[in-house]
Amino acid sequence: MTPLPHHSPLAVHGLSVTYGDKPAVRAVDANFPRAALSAIIGPNGAGKSTFLKACLGIVAPLSGEVAFFGQPIAQARARVAYVPQRASVDWDFPTTVLDVVQMGQYRRAGLWGRLSGAARTQAMGCLERVGMAEFASRQIGQLSGGQQQRVFLARALAQEAELYLLDEPFAGVDAATEHAIMDVLRGLRAEGKSVIAVHHDLATVEDYFDHVFLINVDRIAEGPVKTTFTAQNLNAAYGGRLVASTPTTLIQAAE
Amino acid sequence: MTQFWAALTLQAGYNAALVAIGAALLGLAAGVAGSFVMLRKRSLVSDAVAHAALPGIVLAFMVMVALGGEGRSLLGLLLGAALSGGAGLLVMSWLTTRTRLAEDAAIGAVLGVFFGAGIVLLTVVQTMRAGRQAGLEDFLLGATAGMLREDAILIALGGAVVLALCWLLRRPMTLVAFDPGHAATLGYNTRAIDLAIMGLAMAVTIIGLKLVGLVLIVALLIIPPVAARFWTDRAGVMVWIAGGIGGAGAYLGAAISASAPDLPTGPVIVLVLAAGFALSMLLAPKRGIVSAAWRYLRLRRQFQQGA
């Protein structure tokens, strides 16, 4: 078997995950480009989140190989940051905005190392980048959904990674937040960093992303948005449901 | 009243002083360790683990008697408690990961079955001659009358170890409690950290067996942190407030029960902690009910004046 490529921030070969006896992701290959914004697209239950979690080792894959920058995840953790779905945590947890961002620094601080004043300054800088600096001492439960999403992004920025994996960063956020997040992601790309996001809104794919990966349990298609984000591939991924359930403008955008 | 004051200032006799100091240390350790249990939302799991310790205690007693010993060696009994509590924890995590059972169902099943088995074994032992005087049933609700210096030392040492581990592991445990998926991507072994949280709760259960008993220990673990939660929005601060509430409440409870000898220590401590919880819920400045009502009324008046 040929080794997975080193130049790719995330390369996957034959990845399968099952929940019980039901396959969630089946023998998927993928190869995401460096210094680009990539979208993972597919219908509900297509295994998008599961695919991300299996790559990161949060859920155990049944089989397959995953390489971050040509290395297994255990050796690449410092280069990879993950932004989970906002709904995956309890926002009534007793912690402040700044505390959450500093959680992204725990790894660098070591298990018991102190978080220095410089670390705090860096964390504040990350909050600044997502436009949340004035909320630093707020309890996280007092934030709106969009603000919570920005805090999660700031936590990932605090990790100073080279690859950012985001699970539905735009789900249930306001338009201002969506713009703010996109500005940050484009900024990362300009710095030569790579972004892979599970994405739901087909209308914005061409606007936001360079590279697209279509999945519906099986890999449907992968490549540059221009050539891969086609009506034919979308129909293959969504199994015809798309035509029935989305406005026509959307289909035009897809063609 | 003088009796109560004497107990509160450790002047009510040797046994009462031992109990009060032991209770304070236990309450402190339980409040701190329980904070992480509460943050991880494992309160009921810790209750089930505590109940699951009973069959181990009785079996350890039987084994020690069968081996020709007296059967009352505290260390042996505590080892049995740890083993069967741990077995209960493993069965619970196996049930939730390998079957489709929800966690609450697994908790109910394990708690009921292990505790039931323990009660059956306890009844059998009490028909044995050696068992009748063993006082094993004291481990259910605690019994302080016969508390020895060694028991207090055990609580002090065990409590110190629990506190030290909580301090060392505070960041990983907080991280896993808040967002286990993110913690895993940072390279933390979330299973091991979860195990550590439950292990600390189990250690508190075991050092608290003699004083509070396994049925009520969950109250010492959980009431202090939920009371502390009303006073702060930061986990790091909440842990120490919980420790303070736990320590002070247990000390006060022990003093009350020492001044009224017919009152059982463990249950009185639980009631004192419950009073602390009620006061926190009412009076805490930001999250308390009274201040929330006050803010609401003020706001309403502002709007009415504005209209």
From TrEMBL, chain A:
Residue stretches making up the ABC transporter domain: 10-242
Record's keyword terms, sorted: ATP-binding, Ion transport, Nucleotide-binding, Transport, Zinc, Zinc transport
Residues annotated as transmembrane: none
CDD domains tied to this protein: ABC_Metallic_Cations
One MF term in the entry's GO annotations: ATP binding
Family: Belongs to the ABC transporter superfamily.
PANTHER family: IRON TRANSPORT SYSTEM ATP-BINDING PROTEIN HI_0361-RELATED, METAL TRANSPORT SYSTEM ATP-BINDING PROTEIN TM_0124-RELATED
Protein name: Metal ABC transporter ATP-binding protein
Source taxonomy: Bacteria, Pseudomonadati, Pseudomonadota, Alphaproteobacteria, Rhodobacterales
